[in-house]
Predict the 3D structure of the following.
Amino acid sequence: AEPIELFFSTHSVYAYIGHRRLLEIATAAGRPIVCRPFDLNALIAANGFGLAGALTPVRQAYFFGREIERWAEYRNVPLYHRIPDNHHHDLGLSSTFLIAAINMGHDGITVAGEILRAHWIDGADLADPATMIGIAQRLDLDADTLFQVGRSAEVRSIYEANTREALARPIFGSPTYFVDGDMFYGQDRLELVARACERPFEHRWQTKTDPDRPICGV
């Protein structure tokens, strides 16, 4: 079966909230999951908007407060009591750590889940090497080797390629899932992802970057 592609930032709260449900869907469908961590800040800058800055205080409290609380309860996942103070720290270390683990043959979705868990349950700083060492220890991985591989030009180029791919498709947020090329944005679309794994939807998402095919509904 074709894999489910997961494009996400390693600090994404909704990638964390949807992680277990995604695993359930992939297991039931007999599909592997391909993790594609990308630079969300580069995507935001390229699209000319800021996710939080574009919202009024009330809307920000709703989307980054109440919605997070409700979805965490609905998915029955534990959650840090607030957005971690280090949430906006650089994600290069955690992203290249994950890519290095994948390149070394480890299960990417398991490593991704532990990174997300560390941030959203423990409030861990994903820019701190000590955080990544702890993650490696919990997964019985060699942290020194992961750091070394993560600093390589090959891994950095994969991270940059993932970001370029996210911009090209085009993706506009995290997490974004692809099933047989069909795009689903947000963990609140996971039930649609499950349906797509069983039976594809009649039409595919089209974008203005593809001039040969019309946008659905326009």
Summary: The longest helix spans residues 57-75. DSSP finds nine helices and four strands in the chain.
